[in-house]
């Protein structure tokens, strides 16, 4: 029986990476309305793909409300780009920074952590706003509501990655201290 080359095998890591990409693209269908001051690479190809999907769905479903949503989304992307360019001139921002959850922190001023705003407030905001939009357009309401799950997934994933990186930094510091003590004892 012939074996498949390694690149053709479906792996857990490859599947998970694909899920992350799909959720990232899906979340960008609402994040221009929710966030400000994104990094320069955070508003690139995936944002373009999200816009293309909205545009395609609007025309495939012949949905005038979705076309209006797409137009508003385009305006929000342009505003977000201008805001991000101005923010990048004032301070150094990581190129892949997903943006400050400005709307969530404005609506819930008691939330001080970006992580909490992105992981807890934004998804529920999308569910609530999406539910309200169902009165105007079933398609737009369901689109906005569905992004809540992508936002929750990405928020949880980002938190997990940050915690692992922090632990790796702590481990590296401890190892460095141990090695420097070993060297001092020798000399």
What is this structure's SSE topology?
Elements: H1 12-27, H2 31-34, H3 45-60, H4 64-90, H5 102-107, H6 114-133, H7 138-186
Task: Provide a descriptive summary of the structure in words.
This protein is mainly alpha-helical and 187 residues long. It has helices at residues 12-27, 31-34, 45-60, 64-90, 102-107, 114-133, 138-186. It contains 7 helices and no strands. The longest helix has 49 residues, at 138-186. 26% of the residues are buried. The model has no long low-confidence stretch (mean pLDDT 86).
Query: Helix share of residues?
Result: over 70%
Query: What structural category do the secondary elements indicate?
Result: mainly alpha
Molecular shape: elongated
End-to-end separation: 61 Å
The largest sheet is:
none
Average the pLDDT over all residues and give the rounded result: 86
Helical segment count: 7
Summarize it:
The chain is an all-alpha fold and 187 residues long.
Tags for this model:
0% strand
């Amino acid at each position: 029986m012939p074996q498949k080359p390694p690149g053709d095998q479906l792996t857990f890591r490859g599947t998970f990476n694909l899920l992350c990409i799909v959720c990232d693209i899906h979340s960008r269908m609402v994040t221009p309305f929710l966030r400000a001051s994104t990094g320069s690479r955070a508003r690139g190809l995936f944002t373009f793909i999200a816009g293309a999907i909205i545009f395609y769905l609007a025309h495939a479903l012949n949905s005038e409300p979705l076309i209006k949503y797409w137009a508003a989304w385009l305006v929000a992307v342009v505003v977000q780009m201008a805001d991000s360019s101005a923010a990048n001139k004032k301070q150094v921002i990581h190129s892949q920074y997903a943006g400050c959850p400005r709307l969530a922190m404005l609506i819930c001023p008691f939330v001080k952590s970006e992580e909490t705003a992105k992981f807890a407030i934004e998804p529920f905001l999308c569910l609530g706003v999406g539910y309200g939009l169902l009165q105007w357009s079933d398609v737009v309401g369901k689109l906005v509501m569905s992004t809540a799950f992508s936002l929750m997934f990405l928020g949880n994933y980002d938190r997990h990655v940050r915690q692992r990186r922090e632990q790796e930094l702590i481990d590296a510091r401890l190892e460095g201290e141990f090695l420097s003590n070993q060297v001092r004892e020798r000399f």
